[in-house]
Amino acid sequence: MTREEKRITIETPRGPMNVWTQRNGSHPTRRLLLLHGGPGANHQYFRSFEQYVGEGDIEFIYYDQLGSTNSDNPADRNFWTIPRFVDEVDQVRRALGLGPDNFYLLGHSWGGILAMEYALAHQDALKGLLISNMMSSCPAYQRYAEEVLGPQMDPAILKRIKELEAAGEYEHEEYMAILIPHHYEKHVLRKPADQWPAAVQAAFADINHDLYVYMQGPSEFGIAGTLAEWDRFDDLASITVPTLVIGADHDTMDPAHMRAMAERLPQGRFLRCPEGSHMAMWDDPEVYHRGVLDFIKDTDR
């Protein structure tokens, strides 16, 4: 598969900065820009696409957002706002020559928030939208963590997690030592963490923790950062481009909410990954990638 790296200079409140992209394959009408999660993770966990997308199926484009591994890091919290990220995506789109005749946008997790916000601001630039493993309401995400996922844990384990959180001991080694086997391995990627694919481990190892904690909070077990009150469910009806919503039965995100999102979108379609969790591209990969390709090909037709 042909690959081409490109560093794009974008304008920011502090002057020009560079972001990293990589084109994989080539297709004139099926060009998919991938928005990674975090915030502050990177493109690496999207490498599942290299295993399941054939030459000529689609063109997919990796992109590290500002603050992420291969791109510049302003290290300034004034940068970490949704409108600035939306403007960044639009500058990247224009630099890559993406538009309504060829531009598909897939956002996963935090990238899903960014993709929804981008569509609400610039849907005239889109051919199709894909929202992967992200609810359209962070308060609903928090309720799902507290009312559904938390009670599935051993009560003593959940009690200890809450004690550490109440004490602000997020950096304590015990906090993640509890969450990894009791939450991450059940709802983020359904394998023992030491067996996670190298691409996923690299994405977690390289995460920008300052950015992640500021916007998301200390972990994937609910949300407590600046995004905690974000809610766009009622606005989905104004997104009129063809949209695929991807949910998974074992996700950190409520699959029923994800289905309701698809029903609210005027041209919404729902993809269910029955064996998947938050990283459904890795633990239900055939269903995930086939669904993505089918949606893009159907929309292209």
Describe the structure.
The radius of gyration is 18 Å and the shape is globular. Strands 1-2-4-3-5-6-7-8 form an eight-stranded mixed sheet, sandwiched between helices. The mean pLDDT is 95. The chain has 301 residues and is α/β, with parallel strands linked by helices. The chain has a single domain (3-139, 227-300), classed as Alpha/Beta hydrolase fold, catalytic domain (Rossmann fold), CATH 3.40.50.1820. The protein is 39% helix and 18% strand.
Strand fraction equals 15-25%
Mean pLDDT: 95
How would you describe the shape?
A: globular
Tally the helices: 11
How many E-type strands?
Answer: 8
Task: Give the number of domains.
Answer: 1
At the fold tier of CATH, the topology name is Rossmann fold
* Rg, Cα atoms, Å: 18 Å
Decide which structural class fits the backbone: alpha/beta
Largest sheet: 8 strands, mixed
Low-confidence stretches: none
Secondary structure: helix percent: 25-40%
Q: Looking at this structure, what is the CATH superfamily?
A: Alpha/Beta hydrolase fold, catalytic domain
Write the H/E string, N to C.
Answer: EEEHEHEHEHHHHHEHEHH
Strand order of the largest sheet: 1-2-4-3-5-6-7-8
Instruction: Quickly give the CATH architecture.
Output: 3-Layer(aba) Sandwich
Gap between N and C termini, in Å?
A: 24 Å
CATH class (first level) name: Alpha Beta
